[in-house]
Amino acid sequence: MPTASPRPARVARTAAALTASAVSLAVLTACGSSGSGPSAAPAAPGKPVSLTFWGWAKGTADVVAAFNASHKDVHVDFQQIPSGNAGGYAKIADAEKAGNAPDLFNVEYAKLPEFVSQGYVQDITKAVPDSVRSQYLPQTMGLTTLGGETWGLPLDAAPQALFYRKDLFGKAGITTAPTTWADFRADAVKLKAAEPSTRIATFFPDDPSTLEALSWQNDAQWFGTQGDTWKVNLKDAGTAKVAAYWQDMISSDLVNVMPSFSQQWTSSLVKGDTAAYLGAAWGGGVLKSTLASAPGQSGQWAVAPIPSWDGQPASGMLGGTTFAVSKASRNTAAALEFAEWATTTTDGIKARIGSGTSSAFPADPSLVPVAKSAFDTTFYGGQDIYGVFVAGAASIKKGWTWGPAMGTTNTSLTDSFGKLSSGGTLAGALDGAQSATVNALTGAGLKVTQ
Amino acid sequence: MTTGTTSPTDTAPARTGRRPRGRYGAPAALIAPFLVLFTACTLVPIGYAVWLSLFTEHRSGLGFGGSTTVFDGIGNYTHVLADHAFRSGFVTIGCYVVLYIPVMVALSLALSLLLDSALVRARRFVQLSLFLPHAVPGVIAALIWAFLYTPGVSPVVAALGGGLNILGHPLPAVVNVAVWEWTGYNVVIFYAALQAVPREVLEAAVVDGAGPLRTALSIKVPLIRSSLAVVALFTVIGSLQLFTEPTILQGAAPGITSSWTPNMFAWTAAFTNDDYGVAAASSVILAVAAAALSFVVTRATRNRPARRTETAA
């Protein structure tokens, strides 16, 4: 056999090539993971309903574990996702569009109207009895009721509060926390005079929610509805006053301008370059866990009511989270069973606060004592911080409504805040956000007045 | 050039029934995975993006009744092209390219000329260390640099007296990350081109009395001009895709807006503003721009050798 016909070799080559391609394709397809969508099929009798849930609120894993341990009929599969604006909302929106969203997810009050109008959220009006509805603080229930229907169950109210370093304030000769914004500015000057590197607080250029809460506190109403028309007004007198005040604080170099919860911010807290934090009830747990390993912080922090314009208690709401059921979920009853348990029962709240990382203020006011006894206040020198939050919650101004395109509104504000160091102003940022929001709403076919 | 040419008919095989299949079977089988993946991962998504870009979401009343998808023709395209933020993204890319390419090309050229000269000891080691930053994923690199830029955290800023506010100047901050990532990679390309420079030309230069510097600038650089051009053009095209580094740095540098580059504009439209139509339209426009540039590059690189033989003749 001196010369072999080329055919067998060619056949072998072809076979080898085919095998190689088949193998490479198999390897590639194997790389794709099989995602788990909403558990569409109702459970067989005797087997627990399996429920998928995405969230990021502090202590949620502990709540889910406690629920699963005490419930035989429903099993919750919890997946921790990044917080809303850090990518969580994008993840939920994508999953809703792709049809593999979880049954239940967390969404903040500010984002709920947008998710509802995108069609991601199930109308749960009929599934929530009045007896459950009446357990929540009316302001929080108001924010989950849109167009007369109920779209979510509130987890926490988020009354504003001032977290401050007693030692730094004391060193500057300040004995009591500021009660008015005029005091706050005077204290800022004193702190800077006592220690030139110290600023009283931080303006977060990456997160407009503090400015929004402060506007809310000053009776601003950025959004409202008249019949089927949206009213958008980011430039009312209340907002203008707040914006002018913070513009002056920034221009006079009385506050730091740093991204929220960034390394830079944390480092400035640790060094004592930032003496206070304008937060909300949930911030107590966040601040405590952020500074847990930093020396010389525990016991130095205290909580005071947020300053107001006239010295009378007044608060907006800064953040705050709800539970919403996916439009496509077929496990509404089980999802609501878990959401109600997590928000309105002693065990649910105890599990969350007992995790040590959450100082959420329960939207169900009757559970505040539970939260209070479950939260370890060593970091705040044993202060009754929930006492401050209760007073704050009672002073939350009524009538605020979040807009249906807060993603656009907030992106516009954040982009403009980024230019504060290069000549931008807060008033200009509000102008830009006003027109961006109005354009987004009219572009989506909604009626708008200004 | 006339000798040795054979007319195609001389070599064309007699087409029997079975031969073509045998002949094309192996190439087809080898190309199939590429074609399948190219179709599934490139053509289909592009087609889907074009499809998405023709629709918009419409709502009625207060909008809480959910939305309906309606055909909008080129409405998304006119919207995107009229958007100041989108166009300013291209301006950012332009400024980025103007700052980045000269710095990066000059640096890699200088380093590769040094590597090619007799001056460098431990050549392999130096080459590897230069290339190493390129092996670091862009996300990690941006995180590291964000840390190094942040005052109060960074040892570099502290060493420079703490007054350096590089996060307030996003463009140089991002360019610096890109230079760090890509210089070593392009050193490899330039060094390979330098190795291909004919030795007799260099010997002739030495005989004519050219020193190392003169040889480098007057002989080597002109001879690897085509590599320089290719690297520059590919870098321009790659720059259109700028996304990872500024997106990561955004967390530390608020001056980087949500629509700082065209890719970031598309991302924000899709995932913050929930407007997939606008996101798709802006992506398609970006893809067309990149395709046009790529076309120019392929034409330019294909023509170059032909032109050189012309001038040589």
From TrEMBL, chain A:
PROSITE patterns hit by this protein: PROKAR_LIPOPROTEIN
Keywords, sorted A to Z: Cell membrane, Lipoprotein, Membrane, Palmitate, Signal, Sugar transport, Transport
Signal peptide (from-to): 1-26
InterPro entries registered for this protein in UniProt: Bact_solute-bd_prot1, SBP
TM ranges: none
Matching SUPFAM superfamilies: Periplasmic binding protein-like II
UniProt name for this protein: Multiple sugar transport system substrate-binding protein
Species: Streptacidiphilus jiangxiensis
TrEMBL record, chain B:
Annotated membrane topology: Multi-pass membrane protein
Location relative to the cell: Cell membrane
Any matching Pfam family: BPD_transp_1
Entries under Gene3D superfamilies matching the protein: MetI-like (1.10.3720.10)
Name the UniProt record assigns to this protein: Multiple sugar transport system permease protein
Highest taxon listed in the record's lineage: Bacteria
GO BP of this protein: transmembrane transport
A single cellular component GO annotation: plasma membrane
Protein family per UniProt: Belongs to the binding-protein-dependent transport system permease family.
Spans through the membrane: 28-51, 90-113, 125-148, 223-243, 276-298
Compositionally biased spans, kind Low complexity: 1-15
PROSITE patterns reported in the protein's UniProt record: ABC_TM1
Keyword entries, A-Z: Cell membrane, Membrane, Sugar transport, Transmembrane, Transmembrane helix, Transport
InterPro entries: MetI-like, MetI-like_sf, UgpAE/MalFG_permease
Domain ABC transmembrane type-1, first and last residues per copy: 90-297
